[in-house]
Amino acid sequence: CTREATEDTLSLVRLLLEHHANPNAVCNGRTLPSLAITLGNERLVDLLINHETTDPSTSLGLGNGNVLCTILSTVQESRWTYAKRLELVCKESIKKNLLNLYFICILN
């Protein structure tokens, strides 16, 4: 996962997802969506957040919360505009679990 998503990167991630790779697998307190958010990789974030198997409520463990916590983190202010962060929060996959995601965020 790099800062910029090339077409090759996106094609590889699509291929992995088509073959049932788990975007919710946690490694070192990160999932692929949370890592892509942290790196500011907008095209990859859009691909992952919109994928049917991505679960933004997956706990990242280690007091890291979940994908919503990553999006809302003040650390992301330098990588994402306010409008883009709001757009990510308003994605259907996140909106449907927003209250639960928020409580996980504040409890971590």
TrEMBL record:
This is Uncharacterized protein. PANTHER family: ANKYRIN REPEAT AND MYND DOMAIN PROTEIN 1 (PTHR15897), ANKYRIN REPEAT AND MYND DOMAIN-CONTAINING PROTEIN 1 (PTHR15897:SF2). It comes from the Eukaryota.
